[in-house]
């Protein structure tokens, strides 16, 4: 077979785009430099699945045709939750997904947690239009949370691979699966959309979007959102301002897109609870603010109202995050069956976590002496990267190869600011009174991949054969303090990924996959560098990157009335690294010991079945069973921690979700039920939180064209419909070996019933 001649014009355009991407990368390393533009294309398929947006309405929700266990959500799935809810909360309905948060929107980042098949989010991969979001943890060192990266209304869809992510996914931590989010493309018609929401806890949210419509292949939207609400318990606001802009240009068989997103977030913390605290102080116990005198008394050891120690409550806590994310994407048809896709991106982040600590006196020995200071953890991220892939259809083969390069600079500081009384800390603090430590990290990531998808038996059998080669090198420099200087590299020459899907007939198919992965060593205060130089020098030659081996297989069925899938999996997680805390409380922030504590074995099953008896009625169900257990004991100093055979922390064995959607005429009515099984927060399983059910509901009515408005819709969303008291997040302050008296404060209770009414008008 001869290779078609590639046109000089298209090749020049492709090379020009790559030059722009690399050129933008050069100046993007400066924190003060302007950010390059960004975004991605539509209807993308292939091994990488990491270079652009998708139109997910047109693809199978249960992953029909995939050799991996893949589930998808669309914009229809978002309707059940209040506007502005985190896309992660939408994913909670999918099999294998365990999601928790302490607020009704799922946006409070200190409490937000997601896990897949026993792997917590630090060992998962997350992307937006192919751009890596890191592990989306609170102290993220190499990314940002999806709730800051994208306005919720601009979500085009998401794809979940619960065990084996697409080979080219840009992630250094996806041991246990990936979540790929896609932004919505601009509308082809001109229009203005305005939405105003009001609800429980003085919640107000405004969303506005302007679409230019299509002009000879060019389309763009500009959008903004402002949200403000009180905490559902205690005192303090939760605020966020966001801007999203996206432009696309289609010419011939080519697509170029650019995106610029910004976010400014201010969230007031909820008090972390222990089992003992909840029993003594109740479900609604929170920090002291605005009662300054009670906080001062407690810092002095004068306790009232059931409080018996300094850690029962603090005056207040806060998280501040400012982010800018930009990208430029191109998808070029170089010749018949040959496509080049490339993305360049830049991300800047500044963040602070505030805590009014009773463990540091302000202005000691002066008339201004106060037994409380503000302790901060201060973050900075400046990173840029390039992702590219080349696909070639050659007979019954689809060949694809690509690379990902990222350079990330991360800083973290621990500072104290002296105060003489209660202060409003809703701003970034500067000029600390004490600087405890200041650490700089530089992380450079290279990843190559190559995959061949082979179509056999008249398209009934598809085989995926591929490998990737990741390398992540992290260097650290201690500017202030006693944390370690050094370097660690996580790399692997070849990590295989194999898969097959076979169509038994027009409705049924079998699939199976195998993959190996490694994770990079974490930078920041949760990684192996966050210890003394002496301790790091001892462990640096002994540490191996965490690894996983995943096998999964299943069957799918799809017809007009019914869709369903069943997947079985077996996962081995080796060289598990654990930061062993040397303090009695996670919030005190002293150095940890970092150690390899053995392996984990996970086995389970995931069942999805969707009934569609009429075009107006859809009933979705997902049932998951997961058994994740530690394979060995580990040593904490000279003490043996007996974890062999114990269930992995925050890993419920049973998950169930059910959602019914009825759309008669102008109405849209939805009801969901979610069950989460018992969870342990100690490694020896001596302390746990019970199982619970949660119900949500939504009702909307579309008035259609009304006066000058092209469309008017009213919607009511209610979360935790039954007003259930339950423990949501566990491990907010990390996990501990044992807690026989229930005094470890690492729990967050879930939000009570909340309602939100929204009016949306389009002109």
Instruction: Output the structural class.
Output: mainly beta
Shape: globular
Main beta sheet: 22 strands, antiparallel, barrel
- Distance separating the two termini: 53 Å
Domain TonB-dependent receptor plug: 68-147
Family: Belongs to the TonB-dependent receptor family.
Subcellular location: Cell outer membrane
Motif (TonB C-terminal box): 746-763
Notable features of this structure?
mainly beta; 6 helices; 763 residues; 50% strand; five-stranded mixed beta sheet
Provide a descriptive summary of the structure in words.
- Helix content is 7%, strand content 50%.
- A hairpin with a 2-residue loop joins strand 27 (600-614) and strand 28 (617-630).
- 51% of the residues are buried.
- With 763 residues, the protein is mainly beta.
- The strands form 7 sheets. The chain has a 22-stranded antiparallel beta barrel. The chain has a 5-stranded mixed beta sheet with strand order 1-7-8-5-6.
- It has one domain (56-762): TonB-dependent receptor, beta-barrel domain (Maltoporin, Chain A), CATH 2.40.170.
- The longest helix has 21 residues, at 8-28.
């Amino acid at each position: 077979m001869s290779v078609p001649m590639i046109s000089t014009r298209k090749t020049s355009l492709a090379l020009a785009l790559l030059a722009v991407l690399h050129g933008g990368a050069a100046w993007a390393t400066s924190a003060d430099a302007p950010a390059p533009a960004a975004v991605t294309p539509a209807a993308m398929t292939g091994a990488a699945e990491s270079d652009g947006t998708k139109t997910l309405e047109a693809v199978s929700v249960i992953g029909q045709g995939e050799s991996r266990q893949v589930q998808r959500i669309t914009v229809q799935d978002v309707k059940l939750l209040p506007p502005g809810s985190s896309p992660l909360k939408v994913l909670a309905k999918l099999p294998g997904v365990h999601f928790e948060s302490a607020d009704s929107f799922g946006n409070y980042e200190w409490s937000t947690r997601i896990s897949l098949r026993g792997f917590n989010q630090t060992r998962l991969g997350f992307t937006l239009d192919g751009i890596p979001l890191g592990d989306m943890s609170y102290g993220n060192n190499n990314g940002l949370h999806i709730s800051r990266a994208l306005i919720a209304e601009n979500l085009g869809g998401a794809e979940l691979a619960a065990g084996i992510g697409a080979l080219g996914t840009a992630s250094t931590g996806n041991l246990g699966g990936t979540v790929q989010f896609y932004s919505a493309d601009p509308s082809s018609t001109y229009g203005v959309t305005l939405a105003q929401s009001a609800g429980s806890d003085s919640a107000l949210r405004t969303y506005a979007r302007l679409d230019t419509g299509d002009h000879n292949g060019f389309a763009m939207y500009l959008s903004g959102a402002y949200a403000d609400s009180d905490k559902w318990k205690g005192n303090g606001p939760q605020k966020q301002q966001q801007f999203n802009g996206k432009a696309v240009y289609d010419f011939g068989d080519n697509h170029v897109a650019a995106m610029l997103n910004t976010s400014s977030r201010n969230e007031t913390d909820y008090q972390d609870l222990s089992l003992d605290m909840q029993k003594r102080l109740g479900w609604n116990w929170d920090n002291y603010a605005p009662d300054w005198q009670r906080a001062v008394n407690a810092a002095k050891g004068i306790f009232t109202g059931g409080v018996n120690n300094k850690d029962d409550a603090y005056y207040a806590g806060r998280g501040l995050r400012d982010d800018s994310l930009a990208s430029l994407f191109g998808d070029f048809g170089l010749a018949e069956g040959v496509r080049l896709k490339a993305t360049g991106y830049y991300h800047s982040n500044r963040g602070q976590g505030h805590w009014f600590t009773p463990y540091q006196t302000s202005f000691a020995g002066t008339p201004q002496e106060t037994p409380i200071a503000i302790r901060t953890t201060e973050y900075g991220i400046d990173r840029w990267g390039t992702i590219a892939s080349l696909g070639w259809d050659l007979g019954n083969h689809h060949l694809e190869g690509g690379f990902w390069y990222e350079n990330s600079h991360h800083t973290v500081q621990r500072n104290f600011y002296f105060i003489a009384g209660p202060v409003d800390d809703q701003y970034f603090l500067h000029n600390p009174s004490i600087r405890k430590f200041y650490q700089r990290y530089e992380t450079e990531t290279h990843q190559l991949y190559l995959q061949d998808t082979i179509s056999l038996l008249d398209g009934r059998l598809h085989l995926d054969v591929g490998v990737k080669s990741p390398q992540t090198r992290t260097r650290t420099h201690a500017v202030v303090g006693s944390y370690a200087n050094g370097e660690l590299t996580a790399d692997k020459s070849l990590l295989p990924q194999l898969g097959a899907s076979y169509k038994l007939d027009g409705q049924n198919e079998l699939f199976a996959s195998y993959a190996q992965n490694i994770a990079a060593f974490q930078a920041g205060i949760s990684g192996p560098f966050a210890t003394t130089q002496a301790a790091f020098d001892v462990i640096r030659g002994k540490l191996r990157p965490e690894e996983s081996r995943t096998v999964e297989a299943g069957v799918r069925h799809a017809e007009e009335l019914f869709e369903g899938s069943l997947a079985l999996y077996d996962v081995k997680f080796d060289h598990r690294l654990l930061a062993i805390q040397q303090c009695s409380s996670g919030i005190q922030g002293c150095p940890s010991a970092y150690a390899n504590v053995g392996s984990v074995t996970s086995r389970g099953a995931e069942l999805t079945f969707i009934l569609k008896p009429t075009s107006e009625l859809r009933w979705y169900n997902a049932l998951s069973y997961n058994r994740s257990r530690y394979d060995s004991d580990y040593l904490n100093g000279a003490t043996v921690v007996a974890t062999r055979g114990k269930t992995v922390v925050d890993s419920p064995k049973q998950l169930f979700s059910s959602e019914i959607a009825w759309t008669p005429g102008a109405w849209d009515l939805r009801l969901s039920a979610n069950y989460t099984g018992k969870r342990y927060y100690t490694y020896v399983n001596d302390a746990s939180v019970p199982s619970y059910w949660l119900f949500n509901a939504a009702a909307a009515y579309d008035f259609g064209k009304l006066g000058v408005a092209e469309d008017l819709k009213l919607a009511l969303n209610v979360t935790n419909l039954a007003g259930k008291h339950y423990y949501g997040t566990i491990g907010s302050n990390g996990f501990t070996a044992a807690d026989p008296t229930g005094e470890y404060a690492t729990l967050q209770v879930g939000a009570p019933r909340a309602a939100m009414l929204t009016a949306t008008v389009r002109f």
